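S.,

Sequence below, as promised.
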Amino acid sequence: MIKKSSIKFFEDLLNSSSPSGYEEEAAAVFRDYISGFCDKVKTDVMGNTIGALNPEAKMKVMLAGHYDEIGFQIVHISDEGFIYFRPNGGIDKLNVPGSEIMILNERGKVPGIIGKKAIHLLSPRERDKAPDLEDMWIDIGVESKEEAEELVSVGDPIAMRTNVQFMGKNRIVSKGMDDKVGAFIVAETLRELSKRKLNVAVYGVGTVQEEVGLRGVTTSCFGINPDVGFAIDVGFATDVPDVPKKKLGDVTMGKGPELTRSADNNVVLGRFMRKVVKQKKIVYQESAAHRASGGTDTARIQLTREGVATALISIPNRYMHSQVEMCDLRDIEGAIKVLTETIAAFKGNEGFIPGID
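The prediction came back faster than expected:
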């Protein structure tokens, strides 16, 4: 079971507001936590936070989980004080109307709600169509542009309101689960490995700006120059109605993390990891990525400098890119075990060239 102190950290991380490009709050939570057991900790100019264990070792292993989240940004304030916005990351506009949000700036957090024309006022044609973001607005309870500008400014980032809750015996629901669950797993793997004798250097990174182009991992990986890179992200749980298993595979929450096979995943590292996991009797699920390459930090790690041996570990997630993303604590715990045991098994002289090593 995941420790109570770790769950508290997870809740604090999920409760932080960190739309892509504005991750300071999540970075502070992550940095403060891993400082308790890492040999070195730093936050770079991009906002990535890097914790290192055994940094003098020759072979370098990198873990990456992004702590940025999808959100919005203010582009216009009307004379009436209504706020218009653009997406920051991959927004599903069907989920947006009626959302509670927080506008972030140096003055603090300003609460608001996302409104649109009431259903009673829509034409029959409009009712059958998803509204565009430009037809919605944010209401912060003011009566004029001047009053709004005392609280917010054009360019201010916007996050969904915090809403962490536990459901059933093992489920946790929150906005920003994608991918603060991955950053949590990175931190917990560092904590577990800090108790072990390591033959490799381990760099755990909370990365930024993944949702707008895998940007933070690009710079942090270049700086670390690892031999091995693990990316931890969410994957699509297919145990919900009307999701085609014949297209996306059979992925069930609570049956373990997904170990992915795709062009982004080094086959030699994959065999090594699965051998260790089977020896340790850790439950996991096999997954073929829904596309040949791309979509997670794995792709950028793999192509850094002369190339890196990479593996993607995914946590089954329901309702991705919504305010109510759901994951299972058993899958999270399993991912921590997979990473901990795999990295602890490295001797420090492994090679990962396909067909040779």
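The chain has two domains: 4-69+175-345, 74-160.

Coffee later?
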